[in-house]
Amino acid sequence: MSRTYRISPSLLSADFTRLGEEVQDVISAGADWIHFDVMDNHYVPNLTFGPMICKALKPLCKKADGTPVPIDVHLMVQPVDALAAAFAEAGADLISFHPDASTHVHRSVQAIRAAGCQAGLVFNPGTPLDVLDWMIEDIDLVLIMSVNPGFGGQAFIDSALRKIEDVRRRIDASGKDIRLEVDGGIKTDNIARVAAAGADTFVAGSAIFGQKDYAGVIGAMRKALG
Ligand code: DX5
Ligand code: ZN
């Protein structure tokens, strides 16, 4: 089955002294989405950026011809709802959260969608997919973590491949148009395996921002995807 692949560079590995330029550079290099990792030093042991930074970057998130580039917010925060609302207000296009961080998962999804954003659920390497039994009809995206959340530059955890296959079966069975995104340890040399397992959207932080030639890396990833 042919899928439209999307590459979503994670700003976590960008140069924070020139964040705006980094966003523009990675978009010119071919980024489809901008992945925005929000960490709260509570749900994960790290602290990053909030809605004010998202709002500041929003006007830069477009291609040279003016086509908008979606902001893909990955919330690693607990609780979820107040920050999700703040990110919707700040210009997020997609908002994903970890179901184990929300007391009422369905309500959180409804609130994100009511605010005009697409909603995603994120599963850690050790978290089962059970909530999908009840949520698949109501979401736009599933994000599978192939590292434990909190830091860039970690090694890909292979059991994520089995989980991606499982999610792919569930999405196909649902007949719904749901993106299957993978986050953590994605490189040019493993992206094809991850796609073969069923993923269609790929977050990459250190693999892209760790190199000088962003277009070279994104091009090599697309080439590997075929
Ligand atoms: C980790 C973040 C990732 C991170 C991925 O908690 O969710 O988005 O930036 O970094 P790499 O691609 O370096 O593994
Ligand atoms: Zn992420």
What does this structure look like?
The chain has 9 helices and 8 strands. With 226 residues, it is an alpha/beta fold. Helix content is 35%, strand content 18%. β2, α2 and β3 form a beta-alpha-beta unit. The protein has one domain: Aldolase class I (TIM Barrel), CATH 3.20.20.70. It is globular and about 40 Å long. It has an 8-stranded parallel β-sheet with strand order 1-8-7-6-5-4-3-2. It binds D-xylitol-5-phosphate and zinc ion. The site of zinc ion (ZN) has 6 residues, from β2.
**SSE ordering:** EHEHEHEHEHEHEHEHH
Assess the beta-strand content as a share of residues.
15-25%
Structural class: alpha/beta
Number of DSSP E strands: 8
Mean pLDDT: 98
CATH fold description: TIM Barrel
Hetero compounds: D-xylitol-5-phosphate, zinc ion
> Mind telling me the CATH superfamily name?
Aldolase class I
Specify the CATH architecture: Alpha-Beta Barrel
| Total number of helices | 9
Describe the largest sheet.
8 strands, parallel
CATH class: Alpha Beta
Helical fraction equals 25-40%
Strand order of the largest sheet: 1-8-7-6-5-4-3-2
Shape: globular
Runs in which pLDDT lies below 50 for 5 or more consecutive residues are none
* Span of the ends, CA to CA: 12 Å
User: Rounded to an integer, what's the Rg over CA atoms?
Assistant: 16 Å
Provide the domain count.
Answer: 1
Q: Report the oligomer.
A: single chain
